[in-house]
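Ligand-bound model needed. adenosine-5'-triphosphate.
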Amino acid sequence: MIHIRELNKKFGKHHVLQNINLQFELGQGVALIGPNGSGKTTLIKALLGMVIPDKGEMLFNGSSIKNQSLYRQNIGYMPQISRFPDNMKVGQLFNMIRDVREDIKADVYDWELYDSFEIEQMKTKRLNILSGGMKQKVSAALAFLFNPKVLVLDEPTAGLDPVSNEILKEKLRKSITNGKLVLITSHILNDLDEITTHVAYLMDGKTQFFKSLEQLKMETSEDRLNKIIAHILNGEEAVHA
Ligand SMILES: Nc1ncnc2c1ncn2[C@@H]1O[C@H](COP(=O)(O)OP(=O)(O)OP(=O)(O)O)[C@@H](O)[C@H]1O
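Prediction:
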């Protein structure tokens, strides 16, 4: 579905992505994790065409995404920080985005998060007065609205209250079961446990590993993602010590 080959990106002298090779398929929940500044958001932005790589290629369904934009219709994106037009109201934003995608038929729409997050009740609120968590809800509902095959979520649970967090996680779980590809970054590894089928771990712009959760569980004899990662990192420290 998504093939990333020998991807490189420098910002000035800072080599932020170094020879990244990854392959994601429908039905996977890929946890893209790694320390602050390891390149996760840059990789996501490259995939969305928001950052232009220096070298390497990315294929979506077998076709290069270079200078393409149509493939993005298949991706629902929830950014780390949502920036909305300040004076627009929530309802106007949804209307505007639906107008942009007039090709999408009404029966394709997925209103589940819109309903669960009770966005109808905030329809008349201006976007610039929404709390951080409310903005996250709007952003999540928009990412799912057109029922895309691929969901890319950059720290989606940061700022969500526990009930909303569970709603989003359940939605992601269902989406993966129904054959969508979910690519998600988070530092809250507990949030990823029930969603993850594969883990891509980035460090200093390099892929440290990309493995299925099952394989990682077997290798570490740990069950939870935070324990698995701690096990691997402690092992590495021991090796380097
Ligand atoms: N537009 C830019 N110009 C210059 N440097 C950038 C730019 N965008 C990102 N960087 C740098 O690239 C590195 C990777 O940033 P990125 O946001 O991809 O990390 P991340 O893994 O998502 O981090 P976090 O976990 O903190 O969100 C950082 O050192 C960052 O300062």
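The chain is about 35% helix and 25% strand.
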